[in-house]
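The protein record quoted in full:
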Amino acid sequence: MVKKHRKRTKSSLIAQIRASKVIPKKKFDEKIYRKEHPLSITDKLVWAYKIEKKDRKSEITEIVTVAFVTIIKDKEYTVMYYDSHHNKDLHMHLFNSIQDMTDIVIALRVRKKGNQSRLLNWALKDIRKNWYYYRRKFYKRSKLEADF
């Protein structure tokens, strides 16, 4: 009688089935939160940030944007915004004017120390405190007459 040799496909097949059934555990659960706050009839503060949940604690990992938005002639324009996308350093993007919507990255007077939560609070306070100044300068650079 001649023995038939079987290929060893069973063990590799079982390994593939196991691998397909195993759901990899996520080390963290990441969500993006977005909020708005009106500053005046035509102006608002918009911010978004990422939160990473580890175990039972949640931590802000990245400031997506903290933006000052104004409405001019029924169209929204972002005057300036903060983010920490590059190397987790907070920096400001300032738009030139309505005609020239290129932005300038400024890191001079931005707070550098602290975790992302502190930096987010600092950026929110800065825009709430200086929004009128930012709007006035944007109108001046855009060569618009201010009605305020």
